[in-house]
Write a structure and sequence with these properties.
six-stranded mixed beta sheet, single chain, globular, five-stranded mixed beta sheet, alpha/beta
Length: 283
């Protein structure tokens, strides 16, 4: 069982997790650490001041991390769900490239890839894939999709995962525990204020309306949150429940994700490390 170091660079910190995912899809975490970034070093997934980031990476390297997997979350990544027939990998990549090039022609030298979201039944040969084009490595939505797929408590559920990173919020819609759509917005209000709560309410409401507008067979049951401050959590949850009539809670820990060190396990919260933990899954 190979052990990996995963580094996730967000707008406000750099996270490092060391762990593995075994054949039974149990995710074992040996260590985790946060290095806080100076404000403005990273904005919307784009490095704007590389010196603080270089210093932290030097520290991480000095702590024994010589190789790693990198996961990023950026508004410059293009993603799209597609249904494709059974084809060779090279042929699918070509389809992905043609499809995403038509979506946005403002980028150059992109890396094109895909992951399998769902295989179709025998009477419908092929399957659904998540297409992506990026200028770097693994992406947040793919890491999240891999993680939610392995969590038994989410099986057959329809829900939203909303991840707040500083003043950015990325929200993902899952129908029958299957990723279908996401949006990414910038928050213009100060964290913790009534205006912030209103923005969070509006963000979730938009996904609910999207779900209804396409006449989905699935009804959103829960909105899960990651990245809220402790004093924001109860207010945001109560507001969502009252105004949108759905359950709202912090993204929960899971029995399939465990920390080997008992001292570290007491403080570990999955919702704080959702992207790097998902990236430990090799799929």
């Amino acid at each position: 069982m190979a052990k990996d170091n995963v580094i996730f660079i967000s707008n406000h910190n750099i996270q490092v997790i060391k762990g593995s995912c075994d054949r039974n899809d149990m995710i074992k975490i040996e260590s985790y650490h946060d290095y806080y970034l100076d404000e403005g070093s990273m904005i919307n997934g784009v490095i704007t001041d590389d010196q603080p980031i270089k210093e932290i990476l030097d520290t991480i390297h000095g702590n024994g991390v010589k190789t790693c997997r990198l996961v990023i979350d950026s508004g410059q990544i293009i993603v799209k769900n597609m249904n494709v027939p059974f084809l060779k990998k090279k042929e699918i990549v070509k389809i992905v490239q043609d499809e995403l090039a038509a979506v946005d022609q403002s980028y150059e030298d992109l890396i094109y890839d895909y992951s399998v979201l769902r295989k179709n039944y025998e009477d419908q040969p092929g399957g659904e894939i998540l297409c992506c084009a990026l200028t770097n490595v693994d992406i947040s939505v793919n890491a999240l999709q891999k993680l939610t797929e392995e969590l038994p408590d989410l099986e057959h559920k329809t829900y939203i995962v909303s991840i707040i990173d500083g003043n950015n919020v990325s929200s993902y819609l899952f129908e029958d525990n299957h990723y279908t759509f996401s949006n990414r917005t910038r928050l213009f209000s100060e964290r913790g204020t009534n205006a912030f709560i209103t923005e969070m309410n509006s963000n979730i409401s938009q996904l609910i309306q999207f779900n209804k507008s396409k006449r989905s067979l699935y009804t959103i049951e829960t909105a899960y949150f990651c990245g809220l401050a402790d004093d924001e959590e109860p207010i945001v949850m109560a507001n969502i429940k009252e105004n949108l009539n759905i359950n709202a809670q912090v993204f929960p820990n899971s029995k399939v994700v465990y920390v080997t060190d008992a001292m570290l396990a007491n403080d570990f919260k999955l919702h704080d490390y959702i992207y790097p933990v998902g990236s430990l899954i090799r799929k």
